Amino acid sequence: MSKKPNTDNQFAFDLKTPGEAGKAADIDNAVDMDSAVDMDKTPSTSSGPDISLALDQTESVLTLLDSWQQAGWIRPLDVRFARLIQDLSEEQGEAPQPLVLLLAALTSHQVGRGHVCVDLATLLADADNTLSLPPEEPIGALSTQTRGILPGSPAEQDITKDSLNSPGELLAQVSTQQCQDALEWTLAVSDGSHTTPLVLVGTRLYLRRFWRYEQQIAAGILQRLAQPSTLADPSSIAASTLSKSLNVLFKPQATAGSPVDYQKLACALAARSRFAVITGGPGTGKTTTVVNLLAALQSVAGESAERDGRKYRIRLAAPTGKAAARLNESIGGAVSRLPLAQLPGQVSLADIPTKVTTLHRLLGSRPDTRKFRHNRDNPLLVDILVIDEASMVDLDLMASVFDALPANAQLILLGDKDQLASVDAGAVLGELCQRAPEGHYLPETVQWLKAITGTDIPENLQNPEGQPLDQAVAMLRKSYRFAEGSGIRQLAEAVNTNTLSDSMLQQARSAGFEDVVWLNGRTSKPSLEDTQALICHHAVSGSPDAFRNNGEGRRDNKGKPLPPPVGYRHYLSLMQSHNLDANSTTEQWNELARSVLEAFSDFQVLCALRRGPWGVEGLNELIAHHLLKQKLIPRAEGWYAGRPVLITGNDYNLGLMNGDVGITFNLSPGADAHANGIQPNPLLRVAFPSSDGSGDIRWISPSRLQQLETVYAMTVHKSQGSEFNHTCLVLPDRLSPVLTRELVYTGITRAKNWFSLITGDASVFSESVGQRVVRASGLASEARLHQT
Ligand SMILES: Nc1ncnc2c1ncn2[C@@H]1O[C@H](COP(=O)(O)OP(=O)(O)OP(=O)(O)O)[C@@H](O)[C@H]1O
């Protein structure tokens, strides 16, 4: 990219001296740093600029950005980033370009919304929609007073007026070329080869840090895809061991309708490559497949002459404590069922790990810094790393994984590509799996798979122009958890493919499915009062009577009888019925806590929003007050026995991770404490299950817990990585950008056996499915740069 020629310092941002290196770090961290810019420079006025002049004058743009910030449209951070660029440009003797400052603030705004970059063409085509401005809910939902603006002041009148110009109006006359020209002629922007705060690649504009993450990930993937494997030659000893192992691990499929065993194919593909992704919906056997894969790889290692029989060092990780605990639970059983004795290479149980750790713990997180203990200078001691629930891993964390992995270590990502993307910026798994449904397997991959697995790859999955990444991505296509007729499965599939039919909705409304019920689906516009009463009733009982046959007579996929659906009365009754007291042993309390925590996970209300009557805050309050009325809890506010809590931030001192769920117990209950609600001196402790699958319980005093919320209701975002026997999804009475297909799909697929739906307006369900989460990013194109 050409840079402005007539400047004193052509490489002004190519910072090389120690002092400047500090500034480079500032630039990298610009979106995080409150102190990066002198706050005194923020003008005190918010009077709107003349829109026609705004893009001609720096001050006009900055004033406009200030008024957007004061209206809660964008974050203070976004404005400070634009001002940082202004300062840096001026320091280099360059007049800051108004359009560049605007684009800088908008790029920062988009990162705050989960995007990795801004695509200029998409932005200019429909700026307000792309940026979601004006927002549904102003940032932080702060009152003008909280934002330091006096009621009635000119500033307040300014920001509350409807006429605040939107980015769409401002950018209406601007072309992509004009944006690119302005950006290319500014020292604050480069193609990444200089240390500039913004990076422009084609039409994608990045904050430098995120561009760097994307580069790191793409390079880590491409480097691994390019590494030769001894398995690539079907006549090698390694390949023949792999083939033998897979034939032991995967028996020929009995089902005539599905001659392709996608689990076996996934194992073969993932074994061959130093980077692989296995994606699949709920119950498609991701865990089962990865356990078989690890056994097959250890088998290959055991027979390998070069490795001298040494087995691989394998680590298993998940992004949250909850997801790690869930994999811990399922993996132990799958490993114990492995036919190890029949495998070549003398594989023993000790060779297959069953302990799953969180990614933060694995990488060695440290307080007050996002830098991990393990990095390229101190890499992980690992040959194979498996990350489950990879859809929850954001770009920043994934870049840290690649940074900490030795160059020849194998990385295997597992997850459901259709789930909601990570809360923070990026949609790494979704992007890498964009082409997974169509396979795109090259002729050599097809031949190799035939040689190793004996399987003929369906023609619709072949593509002579497939790309290297395609050859390392496998999709599991058959659900083993849900029977063909399962409503949860059918509904999830229809949501995912946007093919919800009237007859399916009708079935959901009328208990036509045995496992799904839309509780108020017959009422198109129920009153808020009626819906709240329904939510309360359902939260207590689980409404088994609303399901077909009162939820009785069902069996799981192994033929075990399934108990009917329950609500929160289930775990609260268990809490009330015990007779433990201050003299009981720790083990007795632990046992009670284990069973109560398990009972709690039998039901969960999920919702889309945070605020308002349909949000997590309103629903928690509503449900708590109803449980109090029913005498199931002694109070509805503060700390009390029975209060379930969700940890909302990592606390390394306590060993608690974002997403951990605990339940409050009174360790010195009075005889009839619950019944009359009077607790003279309750000894309250919150019980958390340990995330290592050991079944241990950690008892923590409420006063030590910092970031938490009550969790009768949980957002769908927070529920990722968890599963509940019975899940109730509550959707609000009107559509908002938060309500998307991915959100509804993720909500439905949190249900293991029972799913119930409550809507504030019947049309919102289908309308939500029509909306998609699209995150701007360049990873998919970066990761496919080179053909093998
Ligand atoms: N090939 C198979 N044949 C029969 N049953 C299977 C097969 N693969 C998996 N299962 C069973 O299906 C269920 C789900 O499998 P598994 O837990 O491996 O799926 P998953 O995709 O990891 O699930 P989740 O969506 O919970 O992450 C388990 O009970 C497992 O034993």
TrEMBL record:
Limits of the RecBCD enzyme subunit RecD N-terminal domain: 70-206
Residue sites binding ATP per the record: G280, G281, P282, G283, T284, G285, K286, T287
Any coiled-coil regions, as ranges: none
Membrane-spanning segments: none
A Pfam family annotated for this UniProt entry: UvrD_C_2
Source domain of life: Bacteria
Residue span(s) of domain UvrD-like helicase C-terminal: 711-757
EC number(s) from the headed UniProt entry: 5.6.2.3
GO MF, any single term: exodeoxyribonuclease V activity
Keyword line: ATP-binding, DNA damage, DNA repair, DNA-binding, Exonuclease, Helicase, Hydrolase, Isomerase, Nuclease, Nucleotide-binding
Catalysed reactions, semicolon-separated: ATP + H2O = ADP + phosphate + H(+)
Subunit structure: Heterotrimer of RecB, RecC and RecD. All subunits contribute to DNA-binding.
Family according to the record: Belongs to the RecD family.
Record PANTHER family: DNA HELICASE B (PTHR43788:SF6), DNA2/NAM7 HELICASE FAMILY MEMBER (PTHR43788)
Extra facts: In the RecBCD complex, RecB has a slow 3'-5' helicase, an exonuclease activity and loads RecA onto ssDNA, RecD has a fast 5'-3' helicase activity, while RecC stimulates the ATPase and processivity of the RecB helicase and contributes to recognition of the Chi site.
Function: A helicase/nuclease that prepares dsDNA breaks (DSB) for recombinational DNA repair. Binds to DSBs and unwinds DNA via a highly rapid and processive ATP-dependent bidirectional helicase activity. Unwinds dsDNA until it encounters a Chi (crossover hotspot instigator) sequence from the 3' direction. Cuts ssDNA a few nucleotides 3' to the Chi site. The properties and activities of the enzyme are changed at Chi. The Chi-altered holoenzyme produces a long 3'-ssDNA overhang and facilitates RecA-binding to the ssDNA for homologous DNA recombination and repair.
Name of this protein: RecBCD enzyme subunit RecD
Provenance organism: Marinobacter aromaticivorans
Gene name of this polypeptide: recD
